[in-house]
Amino acid sequence: MGDKRQDQVMRWVERVATFCVEEWGLPPITGRVLGWLMICDPPEQSAGEIADNIQASRASLTSNMRLLTTIGLVRKVRRPGDRTAYYRIEDDAWHKVVQRKLDSLGAFGDIATEGFAITGHEGPHAERIKAAQESLTWLRDIAARNPRKR
Predict the structure, then answer these.
(1) What is the pTM of this model?
(2) Which of 16, 37, 41, 51 could form a disulfide with 89 if both were Cys (CB 3.0 to 4.6 A apart)?
(3) Is residue 96's pLDDT more than 90?
(4) CA pair distance 62, 138, nearest whole angstrom
């Protein structure tokens, strides 16, 4: 990869990391791993290759790879005859991210519905809770009516 393209790739990886930090509260290295695994070629990378490319220590990479594999965004793969473990982003990683967010918002919508009932459906506090409940259930209903197409 040429220096100019490599610089562009690494700037993009850093943008992914910044997004993950600001929007999801993830450590920067986790965002860099996700960004790198989205854009790298080949799509399977060893821990050493990932660490070298994102300039991370192997120790810090290990815990982040464990997190990403545990939550199902990244999977470990083996190549026949090769003892090295390789990692790749799951094909449905972003669907999982979106679905988890929708599930979480829907669950809070249920909590808001309960809170609305507690208020007796009256007063300014009821209106604040009702606004949250309506928005969250609206989003959940849109997602339910429009399932992902493959």
Answers:
(1) 0.77
(2) 37
(3) no
(4) 40
Residue entry with tokens 């809170």 = 115
Helices 58-70 and 28-39 cross at an angle (nearest 10°) of 70
How far is residue 146 CA from its own chain's centroid?
21
Residues 6+ apart with CB under 8 A from 118: none
Q: What is the pLDDT of residues 8-37, one digit of tens each?
A: 999 999 999 999 999 989 999 999 999 999
Omega cis (within 30) before 27: no
DSSP state string for 111-145: HHHHHHHHTTT-SHHHHHHHHHHHHHHHHHHHHHH
Distance CA 32, CA 131 (A): 36
CB-neighbour burial class of residue 1 (10 A; exposed 0-12, middle 13-18, buried 19+): exposed
